[in-house]
């Protein structure tokens, strides 16, 4: 989505409002699927004292079933436009390769309507989890749209006052290598920063629909929040938003005769930033006249959070007390890391802890 | 109700499960034949509502590409107490379905040993494995299907 929009801009393609809406629905699917997985597989078991979702399912079967239903809905929403739910292929420069049939859209609207109740309950449930109450100092970074909750478009803003176009990203953000990690670290004005659902909701809470805001108030959760563990509630709130937004965008759907705007490749440089489920995603491409990509630079949200994760671990473990057992320290560090929904948690018991006690 | 699911991805021989589904299609139109791309936890949703589930997956290269192995669902269990990741593997998905009481009464798992993940097309060995398994399942499934002519008793009556 980020890449095709970078190329759209470079090729001066003006997509139709219909295509723009469908791209937003596509991202609703991505958010829903990704958030539901993180909530149920990584975050909730940590808060409820289970090792994994299988153990959690033995005590919270209805919760896990609801999660599986919502995940399937997210998958199907992605596949509706992307042709498949894993690494979808339906998106192209200028639009989509195909447009779904009206009957397929009607079916998914029906399922989205039925899922509203699930989304409501999911928000309430995440708010009742025994979340630690510690607050931390951190800067939130996310897109901000002129009139709606950001997904595919917007300016890059921060809680420290940044407000820039995506073309200005390299002037303010710096990626660098560190000796102890293979991941690039990113800093904003030489400081770690947070991207992702919590940062997004912190900077765009005023764009949440009033029903959702009321629901969060009923649950006793207020955004902006400096409690990193409110990320799980932010994810649930964005699931709610994605479901309701998709219904809103699809309800007047008619199958377009053309699903893409024709374009001509040209040489130049194209940049774009979108809000991927895990946060701000920035792309930069340089092309020659034949449309061949000469250079590509992708800054994903997970690497942007790397420095913030390390800062969080340091603060959390200092708060816990470094005299704790290595097992306790490792669990707490892993819990902090999993809370950010990083790709590295795809490794189980991933953290190798070496304690040097002077 | 019978459902056969081929698990895989578009990478090299990892699509071998999908190939089996394609080979099974002719003649088994009344059986649910499904190809899924790395479904993770979503596989649990596909395990519901059937009496007999057959799962087909790729097996990592171990020196005998094309070999077909039938795995015992009881033996395919994830280690206890280990955190799961975003993407549940087959053993974890089955364990989750069992915990939720969604596992069909009869589950069969077949795996085809693959040659690798890098090739554009299916390797000859994996293709051979897919053909062998498809033939075997075709025979098994055709025999299990309700006879369109009715029960043996009814047929006797008709005769």
Notes on the structure:
Chain A has 358 residues and is an alpha+beta fold. Chain A has helices spanning 2-10, 17-48, 53-59, 61-82, 102-128, 169-172, 197-204, 210-219, 231-250, 301-304, 306-320, 326-339, and strands spanning 91-92, 95-96, 141-144, 155-158, 163-164, 173-176, 185-188, 268-276, 279-287, 293-299. Chain A has a three-stranded antiparallel sheet. A three-stranded antiparallel sheet of chain A has the order 8-9-10. The mean pLDDT of chain A is 94. In chain B, 32% of the residues lie in helices and 21% in strands. Chain B has a five-stranded mixed sheet. In chain B, α1 (16-24) crosses α4. Chain B is of the alpha/beta class and 159 residues long. At the A-B interface, α2, α3 and α4 of A face α3 of B.
Short description:
The complex is a heterodimer of chains A (358) and B (159). Chain A has 358 residues and is of the alpha+beta class.
Structure annotation, total helices of chain B:
5
CA-CA gap between termini of chain B: 29 Å
| Derived structural class of chain A | alpha+beta
- How much strand of chain B? 15-25%
Kindly report the oligomeric state of this protein.
Answer: heterodimer
- Counting DSSP E segments of at least 2 residues, the number of strands of chain B comes to 5
Number of helices of chain A: 12
Shape of chain B: globular
Report the uncertain regions of chain B.
150-159
Per DSSP, what share of the residues of chain A sits in E-state strands of 2 or more residues?
5-15%
Which spans of chain A of ≥5 residues are poorly predicted at pLDDT below 50? none
Structural class of chain B: alpha/beta
Helical residue percent band of chain A? 40-55%
Please tell me the overall pLDDT of chain B. 85
N→C terminal distance of chain A: 50 Å
SSE series of chain B: EHEHEEHEHH
Task: Indicate the radius of gyration of chain A in whole angstroms.
Answer: 21 Å
Global geometry of chain A = globular
Give me the count of strands of chain A: 10
Largest interface chains and counts: A-B, 32 and 25 residues
Helix content of chain B: 25-40%
């Amino acid at each position: 989505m980020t890449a095709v929009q970078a190329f759209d801009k470079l090729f001066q393609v003006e997509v139709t409002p219909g295509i723009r809406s469908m791209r937003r629905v596509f991202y609703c699917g991505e958010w829903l699927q990704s958030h539901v997985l993180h909530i149920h597989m990584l975050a909730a078991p940590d808060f409820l004292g289970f090792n994994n979702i299988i153990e959690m399912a033995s005590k919270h079967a209805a919760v896990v079933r609801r999660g599986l239903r919502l995940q399937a809905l997210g998958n199907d929403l992605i596949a509706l436009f992307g042709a498949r739910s894993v690494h979808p292929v339906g998106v192209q420069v200028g639009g989509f390769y195909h447009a779904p049939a009206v009957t397929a859209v009607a079916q998914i609207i029906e399922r989205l309507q039925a899922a509203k109740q699930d989304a409501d309950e999911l928000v309430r449930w995440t708010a009742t989890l025994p979340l630690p109450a510690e607050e931390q100092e951190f800067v939130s970074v996310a897109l901000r749209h002129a009139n709606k909750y950001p997904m595919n478009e917007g300016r890059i803003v921060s809680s420290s006052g940044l407000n820039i176009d995506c073309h200005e990203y390299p002037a303010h953000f710096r990626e660098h290598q560190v000796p102890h990690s293979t991941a690039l670290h990113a800093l904003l004005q030489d400081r770690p920063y947070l991207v992702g659902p919590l940062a997004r909701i912190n900077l765009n809470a005023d764009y949440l629909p009033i029903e959702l805001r009321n629901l969060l108030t009923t649950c006793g959760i207020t955004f902006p929040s400096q409690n990193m563990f409110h990320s799980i509630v932010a994810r649930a709130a964005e699931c709610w938003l994605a479901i309701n937004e998709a219904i809103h965008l699809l309800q007047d759907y008619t199958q377009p005769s053309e699903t893409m705007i024709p374009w001509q490749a040209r040489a130049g440089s194209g940049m774009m930033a979108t809000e991927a489920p895990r946060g701000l995603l920035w792309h930069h491409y340089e092309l020659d006249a034949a449309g061949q990509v000469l250079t590509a630079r992708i800054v994903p949200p997970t690497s942007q959070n790397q420095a913030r994760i390390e800062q969080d671990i340091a603060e959390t473990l200092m708060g816990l007390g470094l005299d704790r057992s290595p097992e306790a320290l490792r669990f707490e560090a892993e819990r902090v890391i999993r809370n950010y929904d990083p790709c590295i948690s795809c490794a189980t018991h991933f953290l190798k802890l070496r304690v040097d006690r002077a | 109700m019978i459902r056969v699911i081929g698990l895989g991805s578009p990478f090299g021989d990892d699509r071998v499960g999908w190939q089996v589904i394609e080979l099974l299609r002719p003649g088994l139109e009344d059986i649910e034949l499904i190809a899924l791309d790395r479904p993770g936890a979503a596989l649990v949703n596909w395990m519901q509502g059937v009496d007999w589930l057959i799962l087909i997956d790729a097996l990592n290269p171990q020196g005998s590409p094309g070999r077909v192995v039938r795995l015992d669902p009881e033996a395919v269990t994830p280690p206890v107490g280990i955190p799961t990741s975003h993407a549940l593997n087959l053993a974890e998905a089955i364990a989750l379905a069992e915990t939720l009481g969604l596992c069909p009464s009869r589950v069969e798992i077949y795996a085809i040993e693959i040659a690798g993940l890098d090739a554009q097309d299916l390797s000859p060995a994996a293709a051979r494995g897919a053909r062998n398994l498809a033939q075997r399942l075709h025979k098994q499934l055709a025999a299990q299907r309700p006879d369109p002519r009715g029960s043996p008793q009814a047929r006797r009556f008709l005769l």
